[in-house]
Every structure is written in structure tokens, then in C-alpha cells.
Design a protein that fits this description.
With 283 residues, this protein is an alpha/beta fold. Helices cover 32% and strands 19% of the residues. The chain has a single domain (6-270), classed as 3-Layer(aba) Sandwich (Rossmann fold). It has helices at 65-81, 98-112, 142-152, 157-160, 163-181, 208-211, 234-253; strands spanning 6-7, 17-22, 43-48, 91-96, 121-124, 191-200, 218-227, 257-258, 261-264, 267-270. The strands form two sheets. The chain has a seven-stranded mixed beta sheet with strand order 1-3-2-4-5-6-7, sandwiched between helices. Strands 8-9-10 form a three-stranded antiparallel beta sheet, covered by helices on one side. It is globular and about 50 Å long. InterPro entries: AB_hydrolase_fold (IPR029058), TEII (IPR012223), Thioesterase (IPR001031). Residues 19-245 form the Thioesterase domain. This is Thioesterase II family protein. Belongs to the thioesterase family.
């Protein structure tokens, strides 16, 4: 039976790992449309479709973190129930901003319920203690809300110039930022899951110092990778981020890695640490 809670733009029935992508506030599955071309054939990218958008328009968007995570855990369990135990494919999580927060809380819930854990949790642009600054206020007027989104870099020109599209997407974006504000940091023991962290060098929501704190929340810290840019550094560095992520997945899964490089569709893709999608883009 075809799943409705995620979309695989490039289905790979023989994949040895499923990578679930969780979007930023105001974003959707489309942010992962081009990811598969940068990932090796043994990984299938599954873009999560959150309620309120792309395929689940009739369901209200979540405004509470715990309810959203419960839905994600139930969706994962439903997918697993449709597979034979011997054929169950391992999975990993990648989330950008709000998606990183959801991925983290989902992993915590799965551990609490003694469920299957991801082989890797990859988080981008979200401090483990929560974002305390730089986020648009969902209670502000449309004019101010849009101005704050624009200042963050989350309002694509094609969307800003389309009043009809803005009218459709603004309610989802507001709901997502309410969801972000519902997040409450809880001190807990380190996760028994490898954690890899990604961020922008000039991100006002998740500055590098705040991202470094992830190290204390896992028994297997895979490092912090910083890329030039702000909250949406991913737009300019997708090939490098995907290659780095593929290498980490190869390491934890025991797949082929050649001198720190992952094999991507028969070619080598550099996966070293750098030194220096349609829809409302939030956190």
C-alpha cells in the first residue's frame, strides 16, 4: 500500500536505508525534491508530508510539538507494520530547523517506547535548547510576519509576488511557528544514536555556538559542519551537505567509503567539513 505521509521522488525498492527528510517551518516535502541525485543508490530519500500541505491539505497543520511527534512515531510504526521483520529496512532522520527539532524529539520518543531507533540523526539549523531569537512571531500582523520571514531569508521572490499563493501558505507557516514555540527543552541522558550537526556560519536562529551543544546529547557525536551562509545555507550547499551526510551514513552502516568520500551514482563526491524549495521558508 502506498504511504501518504512521505513522498519518495526517486523510489528505490532495493535501497538498504531509508532517509526521512523533515522540513523547516513553512516548508514541505518539495524541499527534498533534488536530494536523491546527490545520494548513493543504496539510500532512498523519503520526504515527510506534514499535515496542512502537499498531499495532506485537508488535515490541519500541527501547532504542538508533542502531537506532531506522536503522529510521526505512529506513521513510522504503520510503515514498519507493513514490512516483514526480516525485510525491515533501517532508517535515518534528517531535519532542517523545525524538522531537526521534530527529528530529535521523535528519536527521544522512540527510545522511550523501546521502538526501532534511527541509525543516524542529522540536524541542521536548530539548537538543542531551542531557538530563542530570530524567529518570526506567528501572532503578528501579515505585514510584519512577512517582513520577519524576508529578513530571515525565508520568503522566496516568486511567493512574495503571488498574493493567492501567500494567502494559502500563510496559515501553515503561522501554525509551524506556533509548533516551534511549543518546544520545551528537557534535560535527558545522551542518546544511544549517532548525531551529525549542520549549520550556517551566520545563522541568527542557530549560531555555531548553540549548535556545538549537541555534543552533550549523544554517545556518538559525529561533529558540526559549518557552511558559509545563514539559516538557509542548504540552498547553496546541497551537494556538499548531501555528500557529507552520505559519508556519515556509510560509516554507521558499514557501506563503502573511499578516503572520506562516499560513492554517489558511480562518482566520488567530496564529503569533508567546509571551513568557512517553493514555499514559505521558516525555521
Amino acid at each position: 500500500m502506498r504511504s501518504t505521509w512521505y513522498l519518495a521522488f526517486d523510489p528505490r525498492p532495493r535501497a538498504r536505508l531509508h532517509l526521512y527528510g523533515l522540513p523547516f517551518a513553512g516548508g514541505g516535502a518539495s524541499m527534498f525534491r533534488h536530494w536523491s541525485r546527490h545520494l548513493p543508490p543504496w539510500i532512498e530519500l523519503r520526504a515527510v508530508r506534514l499535515p496542512g500541505r502537499q498531499g495532506l491539505h485537508r488535515r490541519p497543520a500541527f501547532t504542538d510539538c508533542d502531537r506532531a511527534v506522536r503522529w510521526l512515531a505512529d506513521s513510522l510504526a504503520e510503515s514498519a507494520a507493513g514490512e516483514q521483520a526480516a525485510e525491515r529496512v533501517p532508517f535515518a532522520l534528517f531535519g532542517h530547523s523545525m524538522g531537526a527539532m521534530l527529528g530529535y524529539r521523535l528519536t527521544r520518543l522512540l527510545r522511550h517506547e523501546h521502538a526501532q531507533l534511527p541509525v543516524l540523526l542529522a540536524v541542521a539549523s536548530w539548537p538543542v535548547r531551542g531557538a530563542e531569537a530570530g524567529m518570526p512571531d506567528p501572532a503578528s500582523s501579515d505585514e510584519r510576519f512577512l517582513a520577519e520571514l524576508r529578513a530571515l531569508g525565508g520568503l522566496p521572490p516568486e511567493l512574495a509576488e503571488d498574493p493567492g499563493l501567500l494567502e494559502m501558505t500563510l496559515p501553515v507557516a503561522r501554525a509551524d511557528f506556533r509548533l516551534c514555540r511549543s518546544y520545551a527543552y528537557r534535560p535527558e541522558p545522551p542518546l544511544p544514536v549517532p548525531v551529525a550537526v549542520f549549520g550556517g556560519t551566520h545563522d541568527p536562529v542557530a549560531p555555531p555556538g548553540s549548535l556545538a551543544e549537541w555534543q552533550g546529547h549523544t554517545d556518538d557525536y559525529r561533529g558540526l559542519r559549518l557552511y558559509p551562509g545563514g539559516h538557509f545555507f542548504l540552498r547553496d550547499h546541497l551537494p556538499a551537505v548531501a555528500a557529507s551526510l552520505a559519508t556519515e551514513l556509510a560509516v554507521v552502516r558499514g557501506e563503502a567509503v573511499i578516503h572520506g568520500e562516499a560513492v554517489i551514482h558511480g562518482e566520488k563526491a567530496q564529503a569533508s567539513m567546509p571551513e568557512d524549495a517553493p514555499g514559505l521558508a521558516g525555521t
